[in-house]
Design brief:
Layout (H helix, E strand, L loop, with lengths): L7 E5 L4 H12 L3 E8 L6 H13 L3 E6 L33 H16 L3 E3 L15 H14 L1 H4 L5 E3 L7 H10 L24 H13 L9
Length: 227
């Protein structure tokens, strides 16, 4: 009897808590995973170092780190060191929003998926405990999935791309509980916007606050190493 091949999936892996949970979920669902990380000109590389560790630990089929020039545009505290990362919650869309980031990321994942013959893309966006970024909403994911059909050879020839965002309706605490069930070592992840070269977290930025509150509500000891 011929063993059926596992379906392929491209998983966006930032090195943070959400993306590694999505990678674990994709593997649990039986996908052969190809991890994609983006060096887009962010303030630090600690998250990318974490992504490499996590990809190796997950034994993915391949892990690519693609360099981009989003920092050439600026316009975000994550790509322009002249803009301070807020150390408190702010109303509206914060300055840590990177213009068009998830649109660009998913476009690159889509291109690699076409080359691989993969129809499934995974992304760790969340629209419950998040910073209010417009490209983390269900409407954006649905619109990009439609775009994928219109913009690709595979789509116009009858294939069906699927954009999976399994965390989009979960709270941070629910995500953490799911990760604990999957056996994820969250100590290996980096979520902080202002982490130092060793990956130590500031404890004050929006990402740190959401992460710490998630562990507290989940009743799970926070393994984050702080500066």
């Amino acid at each position: 009897m011929v063993k059926q091949a596992m379906p392929k999936a491209v998983v966006l892996l930032s090195g943070g808590l959400d993306s590694v949970t999505v990678l674990a979920l994709a593997r649990e669902q039986g996908f052969e995973c190809y991890a994609l990380s983006l060096d887009y000109g962010q303030r630090h590389n600690a998250e990318l170092h974490a992504a490499r560790r996590l990809a190796r630990a997950a034994n993915v089929q391949a892990h690519k780190v693609v360099r981009l020039g989003l920092g050439d545009f600026g316009g975000s505290a994550l790509t322009d060191t002249a803009i301070a990362v807020p150390d408190h919650a702010v109303p509206g869309i914060p300055v840590t929003y990177v213009p068009a980031r998830n649109t660009v990321f998913l476009s690159l994942a889509l291109g690699w998926a076409e080359v691989l013959g993969a129809w499934d893309l995974f992304i760790g966006v969340n629209a419950v405990d998040y910073s209010g970024y417009p490209d983390c909403r269900p409407e954006f994911i649905a619109a990009f999935e439609q775009l994928a059909q219109l913009a690709t050879k595979g789509g116009v020839e009858g294939g069906q791309f699927r954009i999976h965002a399994p965390l989009i309706k979960l709270s941070k605490a629910e995500i953490i509980r799911e990760g604990v069930r999957l056996g994820i070592d969250y100590a290996q992840t980096v979520s902080c916007y202002s982490a130092d070269a060793e990956g130590l977290a500031c404890g004050h930025c929006d990402a740190c606050r959401l992460r710490a509150e998630g562990f507290r509500v989940a009743g799970v000891a926070d393994p984050t190493c702080y500066i």
